[in-house]
Amino acid sequence: MSPMDIYCHAPLGAKIRFSNGEPRPPDRCTRKVKAWENDNGTGTLIEYRPGCESTTYSSPPTFALHLATYSSGGVQILVVRRIYSVVSRLDFEIVERPRPGMARVLTVIGEGDELRHLAADEAAAQAWLGEHRYHNARIELVDDPDAPNRPLFRGRAAA
């Protein structure tokens, strides 16, 4: 799928695979393997942002994938997120969609939402939200079918 398809059709919480289409190099080529791993992997769709157009500036729509969280002693130390533009050269694929009945914990960031947690049901989301306090957090149940409705540019209605 193209990055535009992911932006327009993938729901928050979906597992997304990204790839540059090249085969993995042999393990003995450590630099090439690191470069390949940078362009190939999986993440959870946690955020999308519409593009911006003005007379002097233009930026395309973007989406963010959560790749990993590193912690020590139960304390998060590093959260790895990567932001992709809809004009990215990588290929994307939806590996898994959130199941109907699951619950998303969302916060408002600018004109979009950011996924903080994807829970098995509403009760689990309430429990998670009780432990992790986020300002202006809300719970949204996953529908069947879960159809995103996203504007491509700020200030415009979604098509």
Describe this structure in a few short sentences.
This protein has 2 domains: 1-97, no CATH class; 98-144, no CATH class. It contains 3 helices and 10 strands.
Written description of the protein model:
The chain is 17% helix and 41% strand. The chain has 159 residues and is of the alpha+beta class. The protein folds into two domains: 1-97, no CATH class; 98-144, no CATH class. The strands form three sheets. Strands 6-5-2-1-7 form a five-stranded antiparallel β-sheet. Strand 8 (103-109) and strand 9 (112-119) form a beta hairpin. The mean pLDDT is 89.
Uncertain segments are: none
Strand order, sheet with most strands? 6-5-2-1-7
Strand proportion, as a percent range, falls in: 35-45%
N-to-C SSE string, H for helix and E for strand: HEHEEEEEEEEHE
Per DSSP E runs of 2 or more residues, the count of β-strands stands at: 10
Average pLDDT taken over every residue: 89
Shape: globular
Q: Could you describe the largest sheet, including whether it forms a barrel?
A: 5 strands, antiparallel
Helix fraction by DSSP (H/I, runs of at least 4):
10-25%
Number of domains: 2
Total helical segments: 3
Rg over alpha carbons: 17 Å
